[in-house]
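Table S5 (text form). Sequence records supplied for joint modeling of the three-component complex.
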Amino acid sequence: MTAFKVRTEIFEGPFDLLLHLVGRQKLDIRDITISEIADEFLEHIERMKDLDLDVASDFLLVAATLLEIKAAALLPAEPDYELDEYDDLSPQEARALLVERLLAYKQFKNAAGALAARMESEGRMHARQAGIEEQFLGLMPDYLEGVTLRGLAVLCADLDRRRDVFLLQAEHVASMPVSLELHMESVKRTVAKRGRASFSELFEAGAAPEVVVVTFLAILELYKRGRIDITQDSLFGEIQIVHKDGEDDDDD
Amino acid sequence: MTERAELRGVLEALLFASDEPVPASRVAKLLEVPEGDVAAALSALAEEYARDERGFQLREVAGGWRLYTHPAHHPVIEQLVLSWDTRRLSQAALEALAVVAYHQPVMRQGVNAIRGVNSEGVLASLQEKGLVREVGRDRNQGNAVLYGTTRVFLERFGLKDLTELPPLSEFSPDAGTENAIRDRLSAIEGPEFEEEGGDLSVD
Amino acid sequence: MTERAELRGVLEALLFASDEPVPASRVAKLLEVPEGDVAAALSALAEEYARDERGFQLREVAGGWRLYTHPAHHPVIEQLVLSWDTRRLSQAALEALAVVAYHQPVMRQGVNAIRGVNSEGVLASLQEKGLVREVGRDRNQGNAVLYGTTRVFLERFGLKDLTELPPLSEFSPDAGTENAIRDRLSAIEGPEFEEEGGDLSVD
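The corresponding structure-token record, covering 658 residues in total, follows.
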């Protein structure tokens, strides 16, 4: 009756993963390594037939949150470093807090299990589906008050068209990719001519996001090929692209 | 429990859960019991209900056996139905209904694809209100439920059958009247769907 | 026919015709009978069905009374009427639902804090399924949405009302688990930076 389905273990959050890890071994927060998280992740991926992107991104979220907790444990207590509830705590206090949160989470995980069991047993009892007998139909409230057939048709036509537009756009993106090669050429020429350029000068103001992305990729590719140098003075600051005299500069 | 009492229990459950007449032959096959035994048990059950003055009756109609409320109680049931509260449909429910009406039979995935959002709750609510029903299963899609509109839906709009639905092609995007209709339809969503006192959610 | 038998018949007919739980108070009003009598008759009817091993049962759920098939017949029903909804909730949804059920009214931040992960998507999906709803706003928290459970939640989980939820304390981790968590999660001490060959970790 139940479908045969291999249920892979998916962690529902950092606490879930921590609980799992704690259940298997003695655990020091500082010992949760990225490689261990990556191993866990790969193990799950292997057990999954197809890569489920939702699961993958959930897992990354888990990993990121764990690392945040880990970072809180590792970072020296700098006064200007704020990490919500973990700052201003002694290591012992931080541990106690984490333990309390894990215990609270575990309680709700247990409650969720009880709800699941309850739902399962409820699923074995069926309420009547037949609906009201014919002679009472006319007495039912008019849930469609104010709705006309024409109105429904318009709604459906709108929805159909919206979907068609969406499909068209999807095709458009697929059939007209922004060429990386062309953008590399363009960047190379600009930079060679001027000697240097900032990233924002390489595309028009208000350029489509995909153009910006491809321009960025073009810069990375040119950098990899040793045609340009890249500098960035500050985090999220303007990227400067500097021309390098290449031995195969055959196009100018 | 005797075998007979056991058979009675299963029959009651099946009759109760089914939304259409249940043929004795089908039950016999399902339970691997001689059809004669099933028919006899059904007759006995019908008599029992009548004798015990139950609130419902078991009748043999075209296509099988079916439970009905006892006509003696129809006036009270009428009052009950009249007392059902009037909650209009949300915009989400209207959208799903429109899609089901025009694309039936349609799977939930089909409705999701057209509306661009999960329509599970909305379809369940439309089923509860008797506007949408399960019309079959798609064997090529792992027996996915196929949805269609109900008789109530047809009656509400005075349609003889689905071929009387106005063709979608009539509805060009930007005609003034249609914009007015669109405005009116979108005006239907709003605070009246705010639930009170833990009431049933509409969508 | 005795008055009591008569009341039983009407109740059965009303229950049979309803597509949602019927509150005793509503029936009392409809029949102009004291609510206590109705409640007593409903309880007696539920007992009678159980004693006579009927195929259906009468249960008090979500503030009212409703007929259901007996769980013993679920396998047969599943075969005859394929339409049973086998939708399950994900672990994430169940966790969030548990938090909302026990802590309502609760902000999203409250759910996030317990689960240790953003619960926005899960809460939206629970709302779409009609299990959770917005019950108000917290004026002291920038009008943050407060979530609570719905009547559908009570129905789906077979609860009369929220007081029927088993006390949360029942789900406290047992002593063994608690000790394991306390012992195994060793102290977070000061920073220790040891580079290890090629390992991405910074411990």
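Note: DSSP finds nine helices and five strands in chain B.
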